[in-house]
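Lecture 7 notes: from sequence to structure.

We start with a single chain of 104 residues. Read the sequence below before looking at the structure.
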Amino acid sequence: MKKIPKGRVATYGQIGQMLDLNPRVIGWALNRLAKYKPNYSRANHVSVRTIPWQRVINSKGSISTNKLMNIPLGLQKKLLEKEGIKFNKEEKINLKKYLWKSLS
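Now the structure, written as tokens:
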């Protein structure tokens, strides 16, 4: 996910295919990252704040995190908009424009 450039998105399915995992597993893992509060007292801790979880969306071009209680409503959209990604009236992203195609 760190390879997804700013201003681009990938889908849960793309990431799942790359890792040979069910897309739901990817969603679960990203959900954990989004709400994770790092413990900086651990010597080998890698900050998950550097993992751009917000750049992974569903295959319809929509955000799925608005259905989760542990992530503030609209947070993912706000983060993506800060990166220059635009949403249409249906709250979807134009995948032809913003989908990152270089997952290899």
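The chain has four helices and two strands. Keep this in mind for problem set 3.
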